[in-house]
Amino acid sequence: MTGFGNGTRRTPRSPGRMGPGTGPDRATLGIIGLVCAIAGFFTLGILLGPIAMICGWLAMGRKWTGSRRAMALVALILGTIDTVAAILWTFF
User: Fold this and answer.
1) What whole-number distance in Å separates Cα of residue 87 and Cα of residue 92?
2) Residue 46, CB half-sphere, CA atoms under 13 Å: how many?
3) What is the enclosing helix (H) or strand (E) of 28?
4) What are phi and psi of 43, to 5 degrees?
């Protein structure tokens, strides 16, 4: 009988099937970057734009080659546009 922390499995998931389990998931970073990029068009673009760019870059695996997730690429592009627009709006 299992109870009070004495489970039948020592680890909740097998590392071979689901990955090591450390660090944020790439899909989650892509979603966070996309939300920040879209919200940055309406408010705080100078802050949310770079956050969207960083999240998009990390969600792509920090490289330009290989398979890219569409959401991560959109977050990176919209974050760049958002940052440039906020900088231009600040100085002009």
Assistant:
1) 9
2) 6
3) helix 26-40
4) -155, 145
pTM: 0.70
Whether 90 and 46 have beta carbons less than 8 Å apart is answered as yes
21-57 confidence digits (pLDDT tens): 556 788 899 999 999 999 999 999 999 999 999 999 9
Virtual CA dihedral for 47, 88, 54, 60, nearest 10 degrees?
A: 140
Interatomic CA distance for residues 76 and 62, integer angstroms: 11
Tokens of 68: 């890219």
Start-to-end CA distance of the chain, whole Å, equals 70
